[in-house]
Automatic annotation (TrEMBL):
This is DUF3168 domain-containing protein. Pfam families: Tail_completion_gp17 (PF11367). Keywords: Signal. The keyword Signal applies. InterPro entries: Gp17-like, Viral_Tail_Comp_sf. The keyword Signal applies. Residues 1-18 form the signal peptide.
Length: 136
């Protein structure tokens, strides 16, 4: 197993989501891996937590990454967040991303969870993706 591909995977995911026209039309440049200090936009995308487990095989070192991309909004209702979440899924599901280290074998949508936050005034959708990588 190698965790060494994790940073390359995060960079590629971030670049793909941040450069997508539909995502940027919805959230502008508000795609983060760390929230900026001060006020945040009323709707944004955040690259979040990750868990990784070994997925070695006969050909070499590999890992299965499960990571979360969140859509967070102060906008009432889930519609706006669901639209952005759909765009993120369009970008990442079955994406063929080029990594600075290693190789992305597969990237698939796994599940989503939509919840109310901020005492019911905001919404968050956590999208979980599963990526299989090889470290070559």
């Amino acid at each position: 197993m190698s965790y060494a591909v994790s940073a390359a995977l995060q960079s590629a995911v971030f670049a793909a989501v941040a450069s997508d026209i539909a995502v940027s039309d919805a959230v502008g440049d508000a795609v983060y891996d760390a929230l900026p200090s001060g006020a945040v936009p009323s709707i944004y995308v955040s690259i979040g937590p990750e868990t990784v487990r070994a997925a070695d095989d006969k050909t070499g070192d590999g890992a299965e990454h499960r990571f979360v991309v969140s859509v967070v909004t102060e906008v009432p209702g889930f519609f706006a967040a669901k639209e952005v979440a759909g765009h993120v899924c369009d970008v990442l599901h079955d994406a063929d991303l080029s990594l600075d280290r290693g190789r992305l074998v597969s990237l698939r949508f796994d599940r989503a969870r939509a919840v109310k936050i901020d005492k019911g005034t905001g919404r968050r959708i956590d999208l979980t993706f599963r990526a299989r990588t090889e470290d070559n």
